[in-house]
Amino acid sequence: MAIRRVVFILVLLSVAALAAALVYAWHGAIAPINPPAASSFDRASIERGATLALIGDCRTCHTAPGGKTLAGGLAMPTPFGTIYSTNITPDPQTGIGLWSLEAFSRAMREGLDREGRHLYPAFPYDHFSLTTDEDLKALYAFLMSRDPVVAEAPPNELPFPINIRLVLAGWKLLFFHPEPYAPAPARDAAWNRGRYLVEGLAHCGACHTPRNLMGAEIRSEEFAGGEAEGWTAFPLGRHSAARIPWTEAALNQYLRQGWQADHGVALGPMQPVVENLADAPADDVAAMAHYLASLGAPDGISPQATAAPPDASGQRPQSAGWQAAVSAPAAGESEGRLVFAAACASCHDSHRSLPLGGVDLALSTTLAAEAPRNLLNIILLGVPASDGHVAPIMPNFAASMNDAAMTALLGYLRQDVASKPAWPELPDAIAAARRAAAPSTKAGAAR
Ligand code: HEC
Ligand code: HEC
Ligand code: HEC
Predict the structure, then answer these.
(1) Rounded to an integer, what distance in angstroms lies between the CA atom of residue 302 and that of residue 245?
(2) Do residues 115 and 85 both lie within one domain?
């Protein structure tokens, strides 16, 4: 009897919880509108929206390889399956042509499409929710004044039950608590602008913050380092593993030019980020650098502890550990050092200038990082030439270097050059990086 009552109460509670979840899960459609004429938006708004779209990387995610700009269809591999970005040009059938400003703003702030369906957080609305009304209006003006493109995104490839969008209501209940940006009155305008952009549109934490098993960012470990497309997004701020602490000026240069003498070059998924920021307003990028620099360097690292200061000509003498490694006596020569001498030293062992001169590897975060993945990616993919401007070039060694040579090389770089304990399980790491770098995998992902 008593047990029956308990069961009854439990059932009642579950029904109530389910009802509450459904109420939370249910959102109505926002009425379609006639696509507004591009001429109905003022120039200033459109131009402002264009710069905000650069900071938000809209084009990077919403353009498929070889596809039309902003027409969607880019495959985004996630630990759960593949999600395709959608068409955000103003085409009424396949894009957002029927979306009012209200519908667009709701998508950016609440992760719901016009019809009220939940959107996957591969679309970083958990950051975009901070965007002000004014900025959303400008972004809307920019998007709605593009040429409409007819393009349907391929269906997502997700397993049950993640393929059911209603499940996202539960995810949001647990992990998504949007609030408008609250300026810190004690800080200056640049700091507040920088924080607004870094936390919001620029969604830096989407890659640089670790995620839990359900794919949500662990906000208490913000910028402790994350993962993106088989690359490590290195820790930032006080978590940084950089050999020379990042200064505001260095961050500003790296974010704008994609390269900085003490830190090297932005590669992998960081490359499109800096390419976009190169065309964004200089003040906004400077504000982001200002904010990031205020997050502090880890204790106990001073610039002099890891590298000698630049000499009068601005050249930084190679670090002591590096020189010892390079001038080690021939008798004790390790295989790794021989591989390095044959394959890498011509560029990384001298002060050759760009585009072929590589950074002093002893300074590179790739050697100091917890995992060898970025170093392996760089060796396997190289640094391809980019057209138009003088940019660093490095050949790839995917075909010319076997696993044994690579293992020896990584051991040498990690232990002798960076003076760090050996990376564990190198053969597994090499195999994983080779699989991801193989052209067949890439063609599959870009489909
Ligand atoms: C990291 C990748 C990424 C970035 C950056 C990104 N998006 Fe998206 N966006 C997506 C994905 C993936 C979807 C589809 C989500 C889904 O199907 O649930 C999406 C969906 C949308 C939608 C909903 C469209 C629809 O038809 O449902 C809008 C609107 C949108 N994005 C606008 C933007 C804007 C504006 C920016 C730049 C400020 C931007 N996105 C940047 C990945 C991204
Ligand atoms: C799409 C994922 C992604 C986004 C978004 C992203 N990053 Fe990165 N970031 C990376 C990856 C991956 C690396 C490592 C690149 C490499 O190995 O060259 C990196 C490297 C960096 C570094 C160099 C760290 C070091 O110690 O060498 C800085 C600084 C940085 N990012 C800042 C930012 C800022 C600021 C933003 C936001 C404006 C941002 N990132 C957005 C993926 C991302
Ligand atoms: C033809 C010249 C050349 C050769 C050979 C070469 N590199 Fe590079 N490498 C570069 C250039 C240029 C860059 C990008 C500029 C920079 O990082 O300063 C680069 C960048 C790198 C980086 C990224 C550094 C950072 O943090 O930005 C790593 C790691 C690296 N190379 C490792 C190697 C290894 C290991 C080899 C040998 C297997 C090698 N390189 C051979 C020219 C070369």
Answers:
(1) 7
(2) yes
Query: Residue 387 above 70 pLDDT?
Result: no
Question: Which pLDDT tens digit goes with each residue over 212-258?
Answer: 999 999 999 999 999 999 999 999 999 999 989 999 999 999 999 99
Residue 183 belongs to a domain: no
285: pLDDT strictly greater than 70? yes
- Token code pair at residue 52: 């905000």
Q: In this structure, which residue's CA is closest to atom 22 in ligand 3?
A: 378
Whether cis (ω within 30° of 0) applies to the bond prior to 121 is: no
Which protein residues touch ligand 1 with a CB less than 6 Å away?
53, 56-58, 61-62, 76, 83, 85-86, 88, 96, 104, 107, 113, 119-120, 122-124, 139, 201
Q: Which range of residues forms the domain containing residue 68?
A: 22-175
Question: Has residue 210 got a pLDDT over 50?
Answer: yes
pLDDT beyond 90 at 429: yes
Element of type H or E holding 176: none
Calculate how far, in angstroms, residue 87's C-alpha sits from the geometric centre of ligand 3: 37
* pTM attached to this predicted model: 0.90
Residue 373's CATH number = 1.10.760
389 is in an annotated binding site: no
**Which range, of 178-192, 199-213, 227-241, 327-341, averages the lowest pLDDT?**
327-341
CA distance 341 to 8: 75
Pocket of ligand 2 (CB under 6 A): 198, 202-204, 206-208, 228, 231, 233-234, 236, 240, 242, 251, 254-255, 263, 266-270, 273, 288, 292, 365-366, 374
What SS3 string covers 68-113? CCCCECCEEEECCEEEECCCCCCCCCCCCCCCCHHHHHHHHHHCEC
Average pLDDT on 141-148 reads 98
- Specify whether 167 is located in the same domain as 262: no
Cβ proximity of 407 and 426 under 8 Å: yes
